[in-house]
Amino acid sequence: MFEARLVNSAIFKKVLDAIKELLNEASFDCSESGMQLQAMDSSHVSLVSLNLKSDGFDKYRCDRNLTMGMNLTSLGKVFRCSGADDTVTIKAQDDADTVTFMFESKKDKISDYELKLMNLDQEHLGIPETEFSCIIKMPSGEFARIVRDLSQFGESIVISCTKEGVKFSAQGDIGTGNVKLAQTNNFDKEEESVIIDLQEPVTLTFACQYLNSFTKATPLSNQVTLSMCENVPLVVEYQIPELGHLRFYLAPKIEEDEN
Amino acid sequence: MGILNLTKLLADIAPQCIKETEIKTYFGRKVAIDASMSLYQFLIAVRSEGAQLTTADGETTSHLVGTFYRTIRLLEHGIKPVYVFDGKPPELKGGELNKRMERRAEAQKALDKALEAGDQTEVDKFNRRLVKVTKQHADEAKELLKLMGVPYIEAPCEAEAQCAAMVKAGKIYATATEDMDALTFGSNIVLRHLTFSEARKMPIQEIHLNTVLQELNLNQSEFIDLCILMGCDYTDSIRGIGPKKSIELIRNYKSIEEILKHIDKDKYPPPENWNYQGARELFENPEVADPETIELKWGEPDEEAMVKFLCGHRQFSEDRVRNGIKKLQKARGTSTQARLDGFFKVLGTTPAKRKVEEKNKKNTSNKRGKTSGRGRPK
């Protein structure tokens, strides 16, 4: 038997909004430690890794490890039926064919939605531990804005990080765009500052399309962390307060020198 | 012609091994294309009002139109194609080739009759049956590929065998052909419909040999014997034994030798002087060029030479050719997107587990539909 209760169902909805553009369907792996999801998008360029810790839930019970494959569009429909202040309880029997979402509103209204589960092929990827050359922490809204702005100029964004700061640039048929952010010296408001932890300068190129999809996670957190290293996928991480994190991995674009 | 009914058999008893995907998932992959097969497709499919495209003096250009546009499409999707042409046909294929010649002669007769009767649909039908890829077609296509900067290889013998050897050596990702015998030659991954027209919206079928063997519960040599039993290009098969019977016999007796010892020869007479050993040898050790000696290079297209080649007496529209070349250059110029699975190792795939009763149900109902889509409702 699996049961997880979250007083703030809106968080789950935000998580869903953040990943459903990249993934059509995905499996949630539930265990004693929490709910996890790892899946690549269909073109195998990016990876979504979601971790929701069991102690972040208001109630959590998982007797047996359980994999729940769901169509995320359908799951979106279920959550569209929920109110902003509702409490959600996710329930499934061991080896069940369906999962139930129960929404309780403050006004004694209770609604139940049952969703059919799917059997999905799952590819598990081993993600090696990486010593990143630079880790950039910045306001998530700022990052979303930069990506959106630069997407108008080209298909890819070059992120270049030095000790002076971080530079985002794009170029295309109509011209070029550059955004430079310097490290903030004023640490009064941590969530508004740009903090760079630099081992060595890095410059990498990424496709706008995927970065734009990642920024759908902006409502989850005020801050975003970008971790970069030469010849390693970019990691974009959003902390989900008290519950866990949502990470996106993105393979860089590489210059073609030899076949 | 490949292996008779193999696709159908797989769809029926091992639907898991055929995955349907989209062309965009293959970016960054090197793919070997069976050139004779794709040229034949182009000659059949690239037509205007039922007739092949030709120059002013009646020379066919359908194969060039196809090669030009569909290669551009592959490159635009970030796929790196290498075309593999057939060499001399293996001796064992003589019988099959003779049969094809007879069929052509019949088609020619039927065509003459239809022409006389003035039946246009019949004329079209038999015209298509008479299509043949000539050496000239192949040579022209090679010339065009060279100008486009796309590599090609001339196989010493069968193209599928050469492709399979290159896949096995890890030189390329997959073989793109419609012929299922690429699997028999041991190509781990076979893609079908890759060079089909975009307008047909045909999903690409990706077939993994490992999954095929696993699902059929056979090893490679048993699989080869199965293909010979079902009917291949290189020898006859036993009359009266179809796909279902073949798989049953192979599962029981493991090899053609054993099968011959056990079956009722009056009911199922094996062909006279049946050279199944020869066919088996051809599948196991085909004549191929060593993949390690092959160098694949995707180069810069030669714009002026291409315009001259296509627009001269072959009457391609210069605007369209230059447009196509622009696309080629763009596909080359931009940096390529790397694949995530190139960085992170796939630790393992958990295939969707199916319940036993469902598996049985699947065998009887809705056979074809089950091959589509990744997810299966429980």
From TrEMBL, chain A:
Biological function: This protein is an auxiliary protein of DNA polymerase delta and is involved in the control of eukaryotic DNA replication by increasing the polymerase's processivity during elongation of the leading strand.
PROSITE patterns linked: PCNA_1 (PS01251), PCNA_2 (PS00293)
GO cellular component: nucleus
CDD domains (alphabetical): PCNA
Keyword Nucleus: yes
SUPFAM superfamilies: DNA clamp
Keyword flag Nucleus: yes
Ranges of residues in domain Proliferating cell nuclear antigen PCNA C-terminal: 126-253
Pfam families for the chain: PCNA_C (PF02747), PCNA_N (PF00705)
Protein name: DNA sliding clamp PCNA
Any one biological process term the GO annotation gives: DNA replication
Primary site of residence: nucleus
Compartments where located: Nucleus
UniProtKB/TrEMBL annotation, chain B:
Enzyme class: hydrolase
Record InterPro entries: 5-3_exonuclease, 5-3_exonuclease_C_sf, Flap_endonuc, HhH2, PIN-like_dom_sf, XPG-I_dom, XPG/Rad2, XPG_CS
Region (Disordered) location: 351-378
Domain XPG-I: 146-218
Matches recorded under Pfam families: XPG_I, XPG_N
GO function terms (MF aspect): 5'-3' exonuclease activity; 5'-flap endonuclease activity; DNA binding; magnesium ion binding
Subcellular location: Mitochondrion; Nucleus, Nucleolus; Nucleus, Nucleoplasm
Biased composition regions of type Basic residues, renumbered to the chain: 362-378
Ranges of residues in domain 5'-3' exonuclease: 29-364
Assigned GO CC terms: mitochondrion; nucleolus; nucleoplasm
Record function comment: Structure-specific nuclease with 5'-flap endonuclease and 5'-3' exonuclease activities involved in DNA replication and repair. During DNA replication, cleaves the 5'-overhanging flap structure that is generated by displacement synthesis when DNA polymerase encounters the 5'-end of a downstream Okazaki fragment. It enters the flap from the 5'-end and then tracks to cleave the flap base, leaving a nick for ligation. Also involved in the long patch base excision repair (LP-BER) pathway, by cleaving within the apurinic/apyrimidinic (AP) site-terminated flap.
Protein family (similarity comment): Belongs to the XPG/RAD2 endonuclease family. FEN1 subfamily.
Name recorded for this polypeptide: Flap endonuclease 1
Species name: Hypothenemus hampei (Coffee berry borer)
Gene name linked to the record: Fen1
